[in-house]
Amino acid sequence: MLNHLLRQVLLLFVCGGIYFSVHGQKYLHKKVLHTVLWKISGQGLTNPSFLFGVDHVQAYEPFVKKYPQLDSVMAFCETLIVENIPTSGGEEWIITCYIFTQTVV
Amino acid sequence: MLKPDQYQQLVKYINFKSGNNKDVLNNLVKMRPQLLVMAIPMLSGAQLASETSEVQMMDQGLLQAAAAKGMQKMGLEDAHERSLAVLNGLTDKEAVRQVLQEIKGQSSKQTKSNKRRKTKNNAQNGKKETGRDQYDALQIHYYFNRSIKGNDYGGVQFRNQLWLGKIPHLLEQHCSLICVGLAHLKTKEGLIQQLRQLGYSVETIPMTATTD
């Protein structure tokens, strides 16, 4: 009886081991990074630039108060680049760096 | 594309969101389903902003802060490019499904507003959090080894590629803060991994919350 129970426990461990060796990789990918801010450098850049992952429906003011690093980075940068810039009223979306787009695209 | 009952559902939703604004209704019901996918969250966003007029949303706040600091402001795409991205990323059928899902999701949110408040309180007790709470706590999962699943909803992949054609030139010209939706960073096709592939060094900047 005890032998049978031990065999069952052993079998459970073996099955568990096989499962995690096969599926464990996907859990490793779920690494939590406590940031939404990144520094871009290299490739001969004289000054670094920064990348900020935005949640479009998050309120700005409380977030900046909570994470003042964002404000420090803004003070360091010359240009703010967003996905697209709204005109007055925010209903119609256009690009403001029109000349830039024409030269690059 | 929409069945009569779905059309009625859409009309009801637009009327509710726009405060029975006939112009908004007339413009939206004429749209291709793919463009509706893009317009409907904007309608929700506009309502959210009007309900909470004192609260400044992230993009608006960033633009105003940039103006106050005398920073130059630029956009990565124009309206034409944005609509191209949506049209390329979605079929009509998928777009209709997304629109109906959005309407269903929104109406269930309204009826379950109390439940949502409860969830927010639960978040403080270590229970299940909403996406917004997770962002606020910076508990974000990045999947740099994985590709975007399924259809390129909203044209994230398409837009990343479009932007990657412009970003290197911008980085050479200016010391910039590039602010894009978090969905544009997370995966193998995201800007972080793509910029690394172009030879840039992209490093995390740890963010710590102030204690008060």
TrEMBL record, chain A:
Protein name, UniProt field: TraB/GumN family protein
Organism annotation: Arachidicoccus ginsenosidivorans
From TrEMBL, chain B:
Pfam families from the UniProt entry: TraB_PrgY_gumN
Matches recorded under InterPro entries: TraB/PrgY/GumN_fam
Ranges where the record places region Disordered: 104-131
Protein name: TraB/GumN family protein
Top-level taxonomy: Bacteria, Pseudomonadati, Bacteroidota, Chitinophagia, Chitinophagales
